[in-house]
Amino acid sequence: DALYKKGLSRLHLLRRLRSIGGNSQVLKSFNHAVVGSVIRSAVVCWGAGSSDRSRKRRTS
């Protein structure tokens, strides 16, 4: 839930930046740096939270 809220707040910042006239290169850099970091941390958290049995099931 916290990661979801963090992601939404970053997307809001991206939309706000676009609405005030941020150029596409700035928007792309912001997306890769800020929004991407939230997604990467979510993937790490979800991977760490999966059980051994479900991990084995995915790899076989």
Write up what this structure looks like.
The protein has 60 residues and is an all-alpha fold. It has one domain. It is built from 3 helices and no strands. It has helices at residues 2-19, 24-49, 52-59. α1 (2-19) runs antiparallel to α2 (24-49). The longest helix has 26 residues, at 24-49. It is elongated. The two termini are 30 Å apart. The mean pLDDT is 78.
The proportion of residues forming helix, as a percent range, comes to over 70%
Structural class: mainly alpha
Instruction: Report how far the terminal alpha carbons are from each other.
Output: 30 Å
In what range is the share of β-strand residues? under 5%
How many domains make up the coordinates?
A: 1
Report the principal-axis shape. Answer: elongated
Report the mean per-residue pLDDT as an integer.
Answer: 78
Number of helices: 3
Alpha-carbon Rg, integer:
16 Å
**Secondary-structure element order, as H and E?**
HHH
Annotation, overall tally of beta strands: 0
Which ranges are low-confidence, i.e. pLDDT below 50, for 5 or more consecutive residues? none
Q: Major sheet: size, sense and barrel closure?
A: none
Explain briefly what this protein structure is:
This protein has 60 residues and is an all-alpha fold.
Relevant terms:
single chain; 60 residues; mainly alpha; 3 helices; 87% helix; elongated
Topology diagram in text:
Layout: H1 2-19, H2 24-49, H3 52-59
Helix pairs in contact: 1-2
